[in-house]
Amino acid sequence: MRRGFLYNNKGFPNSIKRTMTSIIVPIRNAPEQAAALLAKLKTQTVSDEIIIVDSSSGEGIQGSGGVRVLRIAEGEFDHGGTRSLAAGAAKGDIVVFFSQDALPADDLSVENLMKPFADASVAAAYGRQLPKPGASVFGAHLRLFNYPATSGVRSMEDKARLGIKTPFLSNSFAAYRKEALGRVGGFRRRLIMGEDVCAGARLLMAGYKIAYVSDAEVYHSHDYTPCEEFRRYFDIGVFHSSERWLLETFGRPEGEGMQFIKSGVRYLAAEGKPWLVPQFLMRACLKYAGYALGRSYQRLPAAFVRSCSMHRSWWDAKGKP
């Protein structure tokens, strides 16, 4: 794996001093996905170590060929706490997180993600998530909407323009300057989701910047059913309800929802599938309904809340925050 490198495109600085890079992948009961991802990670041009955090109920992944394995009990997984644990064990100055179902699009994915760190004020960077081959038009549009082809760097100065999108990033494929992440307390524990957005917000509030790197690409998308989308957005509502400071600091997401609807209608028309617009609008309504219910979850019966959630085990193991 290459240990020294120069960059010259996308408007990022042309050079970066040598740093150590640790790739971290939490996995659970997905040996085939994990094996495919590991094969791709071992061909990346930049990486000093690969750490697997295995909370599988079975034998899981075995450490070999430069791969370290940290094992935790199946019920101990926590979106934020588990990632903070792995970051603390990592040797790298930069820690790069993948989800188990994300695949690098090429051998330069991690190297390209490192480009913005030549700027000392950049504390986090995330890459572009492309629709998986064969993804549905709904799954593909969501990825293309959230991960455009244009790179950029954001700071707190952008919140009037971008609102709640300002701290957005995704730990499905993101990198952090480990020292800066530690200064803001690492990832929040006991969150139903959104540990990455919370960390991004805290980094911005501490004066750091977040970079989006469109030429650092992975394949990662989901073909959710309408009911699954409802449940996912219910959990986003729970997250925003439990972390009200995010909306108080950056603004509410309703305007973003309208942009998403307009974008989806245009996308379906461009794809020659306008007959899917009614289904798209129905899905959008379900997302909004799920989100609104999630924001009000504390006033709802516990059994109903659990039935609406995608992360049902979180309610069993963690309870309400």
Describe this structure in words.
- This protein has 321 residues and is of the alpha/beta class.
- It contains 13 helices and 9 strands.
- Strands 1, 2, 3, 4, 5, 6, 7, 8 and 9 form a 9-stranded mixed beta sheet that branches.
- The model is unreliable at 1-16 (pLDDT under 50).
- Strand 1, helix 1 (31-41) and strand 2 form a beta-alpha-beta unit.
- Helices cover 41% and strands 17% of the residues.
- It folds into 2 domains: 21-219, Spore Coat Polysaccharide Biosynthesis Protein SpsA, Chain A, CATH 3.90.550.10; 226-313, no CATH class.
What's the SSE blueprint?
Layout lengths: L20 E7 L3 H11 L7 E6 L12 E5 L7 H11 L4 E5 L4 E2 L4 H5 L8 E9 L6 H10 L5 E3 L4 H4 L10 E5 H6 L11 H11 L3 E11 L6 H17 L1 H7 L3 H17 L6 H19 L6 H7 L3 H6 L4
Parallel strand pairs: 1-2, 1-4, 2-3, 6-9
Antiparallel strand pairs: 4-8, 5-9, 6-8, 7-9
Helix pairs in contact: 4-10, 8-9, 8-11, 10-11
